[in-house]
Amino acid sequence: MSNQPIQPIVEFSHISMQFPGVLANDDVSLSIMPGEVFALVGENGAGKSTLMNILFGINTPSAGTITVKGKTYKSLTSAQAIGLGIGMVHQHFMLVPSFSVAQNIVLGDEPQRGILYDLREAKRITEKLVAEYGLEVPPDEPVKNLSVGLQQRVEILKTLHRGAEILILDEPTAVLTPQETDELFDVIRGIVRDRGMTVIIITHKLGEVMAISNRVGVLRHGRLAGVYETADVDERKLASLMVGKDVLLGLLERNQREQPIPEEPAISVRNLTVRDNRGLEAVRGMSFDVHRGEIVGIAGVEGNGQSELVEAVTGMRAIRDGEVYVFGKKINRLSPGKIRKLGLSHVPEDRLATGVAAQADITENLVIGKHRRWPFSVLRVHMRGGPARRYARKLSGEFDIRSAGVGTEVGSLSGGNMQKVVVAREFSFDTQALVIAQPTRGVDIGATDFFHQRIMDKRNQGCAILLVSADLDELYRLSDRMLTVYEGRITGEFDPATAPREEVGRCMMGADQAQDSKTTVNEASDG
Amino acid sequence: MNAFQFSDLISFSSLMSTLGTATIVILAGLGCLMTEKAGMMNIGLDGIITGSGFVAAVVSWAADSWALGLLAALATGLILGLFYGVMVIRLKSDEFVIGVTLNMFLIALSTFLYRSLPAEANGLHVTEGTGMPIPKISLSMGSSNPINISILVPVALILVAVCQVFLYRTRHGFWLRAAGEHPESLQSVGRSPAKMKYMASLACGAFCGMAGAYLLNYVDGFSEGFSASRGYIAVACVIFGRSNPLLVTLAALFFGLVDTVGQRLQVFGVVDSNLTAAFPYAGTILMMIVLAVYNKARKPKRKAETAEAVK
Predict the structure, then answer these.
(1) Do residue A28 and residue A119 come from a single domain?
(2) Which of A21, A123, A396, B33 has a CA that sits 20 to 30 A from residue A433's CA?
(3) How confident is the model at residue A118 (pLDDT cuts 50, 70, 90)?
(4) What does the pLDDT read at residue A399?
(5) A338 with A368, same domain?
(6) What is the mean pLDDT of chain A?
(7) Residue B300 touches chain A, beta carbons under 8 Å
(8) Residue A506 phi/psi, 5° resolution?
(9) A40 shares a domain with A160
């Protein structure tokens, strides 16, 4: 495509973007051709979003120019960008939850009748868009009632309504199920083929780059590491370009079990029912076991009871009905502290809210939980600074926590480093059971690989691990067994080595597992 | 003293009295709900009512004009609304802290100035006397005696309708609600959430200013503690009415009714006056309990309904 003598529709020329203390884009020159799907990949902080925000007029570049449709600009405003036909679907949707689909689509640009807002016309506009692009959405439904996949459609329709010809999608598949991802890709192919639209997709999922894009650009530390025809590269090549070194995204070393799994499971969940903050049943009668030396992965679209399950098992949420046993002891009414003493550690999903004390320093965050023990404390009343700092430095080295020093406030660390603090602390307890939720959310590919190695090491040492993740790749990579959940129920059990993704995806959307493999589920729940 | 009859409570005059008392709460509540919808609920209503009521008292006395008094109250409200907006939107202060500050500071300042003002020649304090003679209209029904109500009463009711239409049937109303619920989405379509928030806090100031002027007229003159915490009642009504103008008005009318019942019972000497004075506040607490129980019972059902609707 780039061989044809077509003018690029967007051209970045020597773009640099200097934020205080960070050079987010460093002399980036890049052309996007009309009618192509261009994938922009890179680690967190590589400058992908910054570059797109420059195009969409959110950031003003420190140097360089942008040429859109033959006209050159030093910088754009959002209004200019919209006027030029640039539309952006942000990672966090720009939708007002209580407004209807139609009201969201015309937001900011509402049809008027006299001084009043013409709600009927808004609905008509939406229906027309739906018919034109074949993107089915219910116009009158409040957006908050829609699934994430449908909300994303509303976002795309919103940009189309504003006359977008260049569509920027920022990590669009991060929150989608495999089926929804396929549907999104069909939509993208459709608008490119039928409407001649140009699509720029920011992602870090290399499989998707291969599936959808014509060309791919790799950013590393703000610099463009290369632009390729997608057909000419493979995932491995892209991964090493992104990180700057070879990354083994291949198999992790998985010990075969030396001895049979002990009779008694480390974590045992029986007919568990838990309510969410609104008082609705989020977990409805789940039963499963996690034995030592295995990783049990919980797969599901977020909001199907995973968070509540984790909170119930770790004592952070009241159990409504059923029982949870940790090493044979019923923990229904035990506090999180007591459960930890039984030998269960927890890497929570929201690291900022529950994983770390953001205003405390690295030392305090690493030592907490052990702070009343020798050598960190005498008589359990105070913390001895010297041993604590030495210990923190040692752990920081082991877990590659990058900071100005162990006295650094944890809240000022990047997401990846903050997660390393949490993992370093939790993995250094002498515990034989771990509950891990979303370990690599917002963490770049290098650090992800590191966490995966550590988790696998723990398993190989005989730790029982309950792993909850929204990232199906992660579950496939790590789990010994995978359970799918939907609306608080377990809908299937899979062996990641053999399970087809489509089947797992169907169970994540509520379908029951096919009859022939049902026996394993029953075994697990009868147990 | 007449014998107490229950039927005395249900009369045209009771209705008008209810409306009269409720108007203060309706006006302040409209202001408060605008800021709530814009995501920056102003709880400093009581302070703004007191402050603008005081200014209205002084100006209407000095200029001998109710219209100037009313304008002065509106201007005071707008200035205080702007202050609130700048503090919360521009300087990103906590809205509750600023609201509480407005209440404490303005009530104290008004009291201080009130005490510092000289007495008039005839011995009356400048802000006493007949207050501000805002024109009244006379209403009668059937054989009952005509009752005079301030023109601000129908104005307040019209404003309820205006707010309802504004919030749910105009683009600016949608933007204001978007600014409160999800400002980024408004920003992303090139409309300024800050502008809508300023609009809301100015509206709140103006509504509370009008409430202050009306109150001055209603109680015939400024005195210490003259708002009788009606600003707080208005905040409560906004919460009960879930920031919907019509529901907030209903809540305010309920408050007015309880107040009227209290006054009547007091007049008839059936119940001790200290007890009846507590009626509106007891009613507020009662409403809060009812609302909490109702919400608790309603939520799971609503969830089930929406789940059904999406399918």
Answers:
(1) yes
(2) A396
(3) very high
(4) 87
(5) no
(6) 86
(7) yes
(8) -60, -40
(9) yes
- CA dist., res. B239 & res. A457, Å (int): 53
Between CA A511 and CA A502 the distance in angstroms is 11
At A397, which helix (H) or strand (E)? helix A385-398
**For tokens 């570059």, what's the residue?**
A51
CA distance B189 to B197: 16
Grouping H, G, I as helix, E, B as strand and the rest as coil, residue A13 is: strand
**Regarding beta strands A321-326 and A267-275, do their DSSP bridges make them parallel or antiparallel, or are they unpaired?**
antiparallel
In a domain, A3, yes or no: no
Distance from CA of B24 to the nearest CA of A (A): 28
Report yes or no on A5 lying in a domain.
Answer: no
**In B, residues 166-205, which contact A (CB 8 Å cutoff)?**
169-171, 173-175, 177-178, 181-182, 184-186, 188-191
Residue A443, token pair as written in the block: 């963490």
Better-scored residue on pLDDT, B52 or A222: B52
> Looking at the domain covering B6-119+126-132+151-297, what would its CATH class be?
mainly alpha
The shares of helix, strand and coil residues in chain A, as percent rounded to the nearest 5, are 35, 25, 40
Which of A48-62, A318-332, A382-396, B148-162 is predicted least confidently? A382-396
Domain boundary among A227, A243, A259: A243
A525 vs A467, more confident: A467
Structurally, chain A folds into a number of domains equal to: 3
| 3-state SS, one letter per residue, for B52-111 | HHHHHHHHHHHHCCHHHHHHHHHHHHHHHHHHHHHHHHHCCCCHHHHHHHHHHHHHHHHH
User: Which residues lie below 8 Å from residue A503, measured CB to CB, with a gap of 6+?
Assistant: A492, A494, A513, A514
φ, ψ of residue A239 in degrees (nearest 5): -60, -45
A-B contacts at Cβ under 8 angstroms? 73
CA angle A178, A179, A184 (to 5 degrees): 95
Of residues A192, A231, A242, A159, the one with CA closest to residue A32: A192
Take residue A343 and report the two structure tokens written for it: 């030998």
Residues facing residue A22 across a β-bridge:
A19
User: Is B298 touching A (CB cutoff 8 A)?
Assistant: no
Indicate yes or no: CB of B174 within 8 angstroms of CB of A82.
no
- The torsion angles phi and psi of A11, rounded to 5 degrees, stand at -135, 120
What would the DSSP string read from start to end of B243-255?
T-HHHHHHHHHHH
**Which chain B residues are Cβ-neighbours of A92 within 8 angstroms?**
184
A196 and A274 inside one domain: no
pTM: 0.73
pLDDT tens digits for range B99-120 = 999 999 999 999 888 888 776 6
Same domain assignment for residues A423 and A459: no
Radius of gyration of chain B (CA): 21
* Alpha carbon distance B248, A211 (integer Å): 54
Please state, in angstroms and rounded to a whole number, the distance separating the CA atoms of residues B189 and A83: 11
Domain-embedded: residue A281 = yes
Most B CBs within 10 Å, among A56, A107, A144, to test the B interface? A107
Q: What is the pLDDT of residue B132?
A: 67
Q: Retrieve residue A124's tokens.
A: 């008509």
CA distance A308 to A377: 34
> Are A51 and A123 found together in one domain?
yes
Q: Which of A189, A221, A243 is the last residue of a domain?
A: A243
Question: Residue A288 is part of which domain span?
Answer: 251-343+431-527
Distance CA B105, CA B50 (A): 10
Tokens of A134: 């074949």
CATH number for A452 = 3.40.50.300
Same domain for A198 and A228, yes or no, is: yes
Residues A38 and A123 in one domain: yes
- A-chain residue closest to B180, CA distance: A96
Highest mean pLDDT range out of A57-66, A246-255, B156-165, B179-188? B156-165
Dump pLDDT digits (tens) for A194-210: 889 999 999 877 888 89
Domain range summary for chain B, segments of one domain joined by +: 6-119+126-132+151-297
